[in-house]
Protein 1
Amino acid sequence: MSREALTRMTKIEVVARTVDSDAVRRQIVASGASGYTSLPAVTGLGHHGAHEGRALFNDRDALTLTITVVPDDRADDLIEGLRSLLERSTGVMFVSDTYVSRPHYFS
């Protein structure tokens, strides 16, 4: 399938502390996004050092990756809302163009 048969949209990925992930998801839903995927206990190495996922009974130090795809015309407001949220807490956001085969899933 070529890209001409696909619809361009915006993918937004947010890695934030698990205690902040509810606020991230609320922002996504409030923007009118049709859904999201949330992956708890992600691990990695970044600006604040290594994160090894969730220790038993310790959600405070865990990280969650939340991913959503929105039509381009909804992306700017969502990005600004998430930037504002991330200025008050630890986390990173990645924004990229993506192509989907079923655009009605995201409208």
Protein 2
Amino acid sequence: MLQDTLSFATPDCSGCPIRHRAVCARCDSDELARLEEIKYYRSFEAGQTVIWSGDRMDFVGSVVSGIATLTQTMEDGRTQMVGLLLPSDFVGRPGRDGAAYDVVATSDLVMCCFRKKPFEQLMETTPHIAQRLLQMTLDELDAAREWMLVLGRKTAREKIASLLAIIGRRDASIQSAPMSGRIVFDLPLTREAMADYLGLTLETVSRQVSALKRDGVIELQGKRHVTVPDFSRLLEEAGDDADGGLLV
């Protein structure tokens, strides 16, 4: 079940950490004011289910902080993690009543939610929202296609490096930090979750993370605090170039 609405010190969007990436990124002040009228915040604890597949969704929204997983369950009970929701990612589909996947918070999660019907009406009258959502949907499609390559063709070491690069790049973007040289971020996934998402065993994930650490590609403080001394080297380990594209 959803938790109570959060009370934030900032009553508007001006101090939002995802303002430049979220669905409202292109909105002007009048459009933001209209969004404010239908907006509310929700918080979820790590491990809590945001929505079950097939359930009716009366909201859409963006991840403000934390991370969630998209999971699909087969008829025999087997589950597969099919995506990650990182800060600024959009949850829910306008025009669709039910949820397509289980959405589960893997860390403490804060979401900026909009009542679904009013949001759908805003999309019809506010081109900036519809255009931004289309762009985000196409970006999500590109990411899904790229992830097919990661899962289907990359080695275990490249898979781990790719996941670290994706999380590091997104964190740097949210923080408006340069995506080159030395970057520092907190890994929001457990080793078990990484193994599930990458289609690897827990032992393989632990072994490859240790190898990347031993080779100086990453530095670890505890299990979650990651320092990448040279981001371009991490991209090379992932089989990507400096722009994040596949090396050919």
Protein 3
Amino acid sequence: MALADDRLMEDAGFRISEATAGDFFALLKPRVMSLVVFTAFVGLVAAPVSVNPLIAMVAILAIAIGAGASGALNMWYDADIDAVMTRTANRPVPAGRVSPGEALGFGLVLSALSVMTLGVLVNWLSASLLAFTIFFYAVVYTMWLKRWTPQNIVIGGAAGAIPPVIGWAAVTGSVSLESVILFLIIFLWTPPHFWALALFKSDDYARAGIPMMPNVAGQASTRRQIFAYALILAPVGVLPWALGYTTAGYGVVSAVLGLGFVWYAWKVLRMRDDDRAMKPAKALFAYSLLYLFAIFAVYLVDCVVGRALMMGGV
């Protein structure tokens, strides 16, 4: 009887979702979301103001929901290319566990919820930045840049770099040079990070028809560009200390991390064209994740410790 009722509902245009809570959680891209939340939190804590714990909690929650909304909208639109790539084929939409309509609706509802929450309960500058980020990632990057230009990740990287600025704006109601530098660190980190991945996943991107740099400009050109970005990123990572925002401790650690990034990028630059194992590219991809987490973690510790010492009169 229940089976017959289900068939009648399907014939009438209704579909009972078989997706689990885990499937909808996967739509949020939790690994990406965790990085967004962490960098936003660093921007929030680094701001030189007294932070209301409740406002901070609401802001971080709204930013997390907004990041998840972006992921859901990305998975909705990219279901066709996700289906032919080995690393994305098991995502909820291409695997058939979540329908495209469900993913779209989920993403739109979360987008509206996150922006309105941030605007009403925190401030409208941070809400506007969050709305821009969601739009830029879901529309400008996902729907246009990703399938049109090999510079997709360069321009689209702006979306992933804005969270610390949103965190800063949430507690200050403004944007400062310090928050822009945090933006620049992520913005310059994004191309070498993703191009390292694209080097050893180029067959995946070729099957999906995505014009990633190795598939369009070739491996040699991609390796040179990775190294060029590493050379720019390393000194930018030290800028917070050079401009007096942090202590020398951060300056030393960020310099060492930057030199490590350049070293791994140099090993990628020296890779042979016929290197199928691509161990240097895989090593750079892994190190780049460590670099971003570490540099923001050290920045956070430096801000917290420095503030505590100032309050203690040391």
Protein 4
Amino acid sequence: MIVPPQMTIGSLNQITPEADTKQNSDLDMEQFLMIISKAMSMPSLDGGSGSGGGNETDYIGQMVQFGMLNQMQELTETMQTTMLMTQQQQALSMVGKQVTLKTDADQLVSGAVEKVRFDNGYATIQVDGAQYSLNSIIEVGA
């Protein structure tokens, strides 16, 4: 998952809006409707009423599918952002609490959470001067 830069705590990107950059493959609803209207207005060579691509209901079906795809992409981005913010809040709430962690060497480390760091938006905790990811926590106490 790519973490947007505006999601890092203390980021100036939260204050100043980032310029929208579109790639050549990006197509918004307005552009899609323009293409559909051009295709519907162009006569076909075989004497039919529209271009050889289909009738008006085909275009409406494509428009609905395109709109649904856009909404699903926006929902996915929103869910990723929400999950990241929840993880950050959970990490901040652990400061001062006793935790037991499992290290990469399969050893248990216990101690109080001294601080929380954010690396590219992801939270890590510091226990006894060492950094650990949140998924290494196996127990949290008071």
